[in-house]
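Lay summary. Proteins are chains of building blocks that fold into shapes, and those shapes determine what they do. In this project we predict the shape from the chain. Here is one chain we studied, written as its sequence of building blocks.
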Amino acid sequence: MSRIYLFDWGDTLMINFPNEPGHMKDWPKVEEVSGAYEVLKTLSLNAKIFVATGSQGTSSTLMQIAFARTRLAPYICAYFCPDNIGYEKPSADFYKTIANKVGAEMAEITMVGDNLVRDALPALSVGMSAIWLNTTHQENTNKVDEISGLIELVNKR
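And here is the predicted shape, written in a compact code that computers can read:
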């Protein structure tokens, strides 16, 4: 089992409502992705949980405010985004900088995200493990480890 999990934000832990203007912290309603609470609660017993997003126009503080509106916040150790990392996701430097900040080797980290190209493949390219949250059942030609729902992570640990 990984000692550290990086989760993407939008449509991995919290539902991204594309028609809502502004920052998620200000939306009239925020919603957890199905299974997110159960997964973070279970994984946090033996691992550290972080959020790593490529979302533009956000900061770790704004992310904390958005997550505080859910049951997920108590399980998250820190929030990473281009604003506090200094690199855009999906660059290799984005992932390398996070590993350095959390004090872990790449092999100790698993990235979980809903985007194969922006989450899973870049993490794999720097030596992390990756799990693709493939809720739309796209063809997995890259043979990346995948799940169709977050709750499946509890069985993979």
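What the prediction tells us: The radius of gyration is 14 Å.
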